[in-house]
Design a protein that fits this description.
mainly alpha; flat; 15 helices; about 75% helix
Length: about 290
């Protein structure tokens, strides 16, 4: 069971769920029913676990040659589970997510969760990851679907605020992941995966990180008409913090520093997204802060 759970990449799922609940609160303009929140969180966990498990199944050959992923259950040589069992587990999780969301929330939420699984497996893992340096830019869209699932679970439709939050995560993903890929550049090169830091100079990578960071902050401010002035103030302050760190990393690289610190931006990006969505949640619940 521990190996099966490890295949789902629980730490990644935690970050996805951080974006789901605040989106539900914003859609409801208050607290949705506890039942609906639990159904959406469990369904989202199953869907993300399905995508991640199938990803581990498909990528077990490159996971075996990368230090960062060499402890994953299918490649750690302990033989606890076989690839066939992992594939069945991944498919079963996806089927469970579809049934739970469809029957206990609505079929739009279920369809969006299924779209996320299919996009991650077929577009990112099979089509882009080993072929294009744009893999995480396009493929990262799979991680944006939880906000659409959360909104659809509450409203039964998709609206502009949900699409804005989708855009925020879409633009956040490249700076977040490229910072990690800078740290593990040699790992990706060894596995022949063309992540941007493998095929481009550090200066090019950090320049793109800065560009995407500005676009991301602009997207967060586009939510202002729907989330209110208190959220806007928080988003502006958090955005300034993120941009400062992105510029710092770029300055380290362009100054030919011996040891740039990309993981500092990576860890900051997680805190940033968590705090930004916490602001969304708090401002959706507060009786003040609206325009």
């Amino acid at each position: 069971m521990a190996a099966l759970v490890a295949l789902t990449k629980p730490r990644i799922i935690e970050l996805l769920l951080v974006t789901t609940v605040p989106t539900m609160l914003l859609a409801q303009r208050g607290l949705p029913s506890l039942r609906l929140v639990l159904v959406t969180l469990i369904g989202g966990t199953l869907a993300a676990g399905s995508a991640n498990t199938i990803n581990c199944y498909l990528d077990r050959d490159i996971d075996a040659v990368m230090k960062r992923t060499s402890r994953r259950p299918l490649v750690n040589k302990q033989g606890v589970i076989t690839p066939a069992v992992a594939l069945i587990w991944g498919i079963a999780l996806g089927a469970g997510a579809t049934a739970l969301l469809g029957l206990a929330a609505n079929w739009l939420a279920a369809s969006l969760a299924d779209a996320a699984i299919l996009f991650y497996v077929f577009v990112y893992t099979l089509l882009l990851k080993r072929r294009s340096a744009s893999n995480i830019v396009i493929g990262g869209a799979a991680g944006c679907f939880p906000v659409l699932v959360g909104w659809a679970a509450v409203k039964g439709t998709i609206a502009i605020p949900a699409l804005v939050l989708f855009a925020v995560i879409f633009l956040w993903t490249p700076p977040h992941f490229w910072a990690l890929a800078m740290k593990f550049k040699d790992d990706y090169a060894r596995a022949n995966v063309p992540m941007l830091p493998v095929v481009a100079s550090p200066a090019v990578v950090t320049r793109k990180i800065v560009i995407y960071s500005y676009a991301m902050v602009a997207a967060t401010l586009a939510l202002a008409p729907y989330a209110g002035w208190l959220y806007t103030a928080a988003a502006a302050a958090l955005g300034a913090w993120f941009l400062l760190e992105a510029h710092r990393l770029h300055a380290q690289v362009t100054a030919a520093a011996d040891r740039p610190f990309p993981m500092r931006l990576f860890h900051l990006s997680i805190a940033y997204l968590t705090l930004l969505f916490a602001a969304v949640a708090v401002c959706a619940l507060l009786p003040v802060g609206h325009w």
